[in-house]
Amino acid sequence: MSSSRTAEVDGSAVKAGAVKAGGGRRVTGTRRWVAAVFLLPALVLLGALVVYPIGFSVYRSLFDASGDGFVGLGNYGELFADDGIRTALRNNVVWVVVAPTVSTALGLIFAVLTERVRWGTAFKLVVFMPMAISMLAAGIIFRLVYDQNPERGVANAVWVGVHDTFAEPAPFPGARPRPNGVLRPSGDGGFRTRSVVRAGSPVLLPLVAVRQEDVRGARRAAGAVARPGSVTGTVWLDFLRGGGGRPNVVDGSERGLAGVRVEAVRGGRVVASARTAADGTFVLPGGAADGARLRLPAGNFAAAYGGVKWLGPALVTPAIIGAYVWMWAGFAMVLIAAGLAGVPRELLEAARVDGAGEWQVFRRVTVPLLAPVLVVVLVTLMINVLKIFDLVYVIAPGSSVRSANVLALQLFQSSFGTDVNEGLGSAIAVFLLLLVLPVMWVNLRRIRKERRR
Asked: Membrane-spanning regions, if any (predicted)?
């Protein structure tokens, strides 16, 4: 009895000594001032790089551009009064809603689909590779991808190729009739003869301003032969390189324009039509075309399809979001794939045994089990896009920068642009901090819940 009581007393003494030793020692036996010394450098850096800038930004936001006049909350009121800043706010909302959602959804799809394929690791590596590229480099790449000229811009090269597959391009874009000739503008982009035509009388329709690449390899033009009961004619390039030749006359070495649509119009209706042969000649039935006017419709001369203006005011923000998704979908895929590797396979197999299809397994089992990982990815990307700057600054051209404006870019322009207003720039910085805080709070709550589990 005595020995057990002694052991209890000794154990209590040991515990008390472990909790607090003489001189303020903790469980680890370290004095408080020693811990403070080790923490001091980190606290100094935290204060210098985080606390002080935030405090100074809040203070500076209460003054005008010069920093001498106190304006209170005036700079914050200007955030919602300036059209450019309102555009930036709207664009930030679009960024926060679209970019993280699309990136996370693509990451989830890639992670699930590549789980069972042999080359899944190689595919993940390729998708993740853009993360190794800086935002500046990615912006330069996509500035070239979205170039308006299809010969340089990949996006428009593909788009124009698809368009021209289903829509026949104009044979001679930009061509026009010789001045003071038999043709005059018809008002719709095409040209028509000044007078009516008659069967048996050949019609000469000379054109100029035809690009050399459009007639390279073309046959020599031939003068139309008169045919009783038919309207004949020739459409040709009335131009000789180096000069020479007679206007409105088919000279021996001038080129015929093949594939030009010729229409006979009477009373506003097309009564006959034909296309020119390789030598530029055409034949229309005289019964329908006799006494009509000939028209070369605008479709013969329409400018070549140039594709979509990706960096125009209407599409510049979606185009830049596309570049962002290209970079960050790999990040989302890797995190989600890591979470997917920890999902118990027994649950998936049990669902399949119970008769669930792959879509039901994905929607009712896989996604709910991955919900914590999806939240982590989504919140991380939301914080990231709230301060997006590099891609917008590099990709958006000067003509569309106002339409693509975001708060971080507006912060840069207000603080360091032509019209410097550090008070307004500080107000934007504080406002951005306030926007990030709720997302960070949600993230902290999620972390605490995870720890309690």
From this structure: 33-54, 93-113, 125-146, 323-344, 365-386, 424-444
**How long is the chain?**
453
> Which of 282, 300, 318 corresponds to the end of one domain?
300
- The answer to the question of residue 35 being in a domain is no
Q: Is the pTM of this model over 0.85?
A: no
Look at 444 and 40; give whichever has higher pLDDT. 40
- What pLDDT was estimated at residue 17? 46
Examine the pLDDT at 332 and tell me if it is beyond 90: yes
Q: Are strands 281-285 and 269-275 parallel, antiparallel or unpaired?
A: unpaired
pLDDT tier at 453, thresholds 50, 70, 90: low
pLDDT value at residue 211:
87
Q: Among 267, 300, 333, which residue terminates a domain?
A: 300
| 240 — pLDDT class (breaks 50, 70, 90) | confident
CATH number, domain of 382, equals 1.10.3720.10
Q: Does 338 lie in the same domain as 274?
A: no
Residue 41 belongs to some domain of the structure: no
Q: Give the tens place of pLDDT for each residue, 79-126.
A: 888 888 889 999 999 999 999 999 999 999 999 888 878 888 888 889
The pLDDT of residue 217: 84
Instruction: Give the residue numbers spanning the domain of 399.
Output: 74-155+310-452
The domain total for the chain is: 2
Same domain, 287 and 410: no
> Above 50 in pLDDT, residue 187?
yes
